[in-house]
Amino acid sequence: MKTTRLAPGSASASKSSQACNAGNSLPGRETPDEPTLTPPLKWAGGKRWLVPYLRPIWEQHSHRRYVEPFCGGLAAALGLMPARALLNDVNPHLINFYRQVPRGLAVNIKMRNEEGTFYGHRSRFNQLIKLGAFQTAEAAQLFYYLNRTCFNGLCRFNQSGEFNVPFGSYQRINYAGDFGQYGPVFGHWSFTNSDLELLQIEPEDFIYADPPYDVEFTSYSAGGFSWEDQVRTAERLAAHSGPVVLSNQATTRIIKLYEQLGFGLSYLEAPRRISCTGDRSTASEVLALKL
Q1: Is residue 62 packed enough to be buried (19+ CB in 10 Å), middle (13-18) or exposed (0-12)?
Q2: Rounded Cα distance, 220 and 84, in Å
Q3: Assigned domain for 199 exists
Q4: Residue where a domain stops, chosen among 143, 177, 211
Q5: How many domains, in total, are found in the chain?
Q6: pLDDT tier at 5 (50, 70, 90 boundaries)?
């Protein structure tokens, strides 16, 4: 199968729209810098690098409500800055943090880049989880600290539901004391913690979905998202009556699945953000569009 590779500013970028549905364009170009907020959390697989490709598509539909079923670190939403948004993730601790921000979340716990402090806060966070008190401001503060301080900003839980990422190895960490600049923005967005099937999606919503990578050919797996989940997600979004953009690792079976469901495909070289081998080379990513 012939693939089209896109890069910001690429001369071939304008030709990429031929791989998409009629009227769909993927300029693949940098747009003038716009004042946006950077994500407050570190997050594996963040899509900040993808915003220049998403923005020209979103601008054609910015009157709609923006829906992101796998919002993660909010790189895409903060890059596009929709006026209305429904942002969902299955991680309840992540969503609790976002919900606490417009309530005036401030970090009052000790924040130091030291091993003893880290494991003390990790123990307290896991205690709150065990007590069922994880939807609190204290839990949000601890989650933020652990996210900034742990190894590679990973978010991983064991079978007992305990956060088990070890201490990181950063020489210096910049911690935020409050999140006042995010409050007005998050206050206009809705944050939910549910499965895609339970999301209250409206027919005219614009959906950008970045499900966990299909890791068929890699050794790293975030876990908890099977191939059946990939198929279920793609089928659910293909049936949506409004515009949809999907991004994923360009594995053979993902490409076949998206093509069978009628999406137009374009290809990008995505930077690897986390690798246990230290490999930071590019990876092939696919954008699937139904506009």
Answers
A1: middle
A2: 34
A3: yes
A4: 177
A5: 2
A6: low
Using an 8 Å Cβ cutoff, are 285 and 250 in contact? yes
What is the three-state SS of 120-153? HHHHHHHHHHHHCCCCCHHHHHHHHHHHHHEHHH
Instruction: Tell me the residue range of the domain where 70 lies.
Output: 5-90+189-290
Cα dihedral 71, 72, 73, 77, rounded to 10, equals -10
Whole-number Å distance between alpha carbons of 203 and 217: 35
Q: Residue 116 and residue 216: Cα distance in Å, rounded?
A: 38
CATH number of the domain at 160, please. 1.10.1020.10
Q: What is the mean pLDDT of residues 81-88?
A: 98
Whole-angstrom Cα distance, residue 130 to residue 161?
8
3-state secondary structure of 46: coil
pTM, to two decimals: 0.84
| Of 143, 106, 136, residue with least CA distance to 121 | 143
Q: One-letter amino acid identity for 127?
A: Q
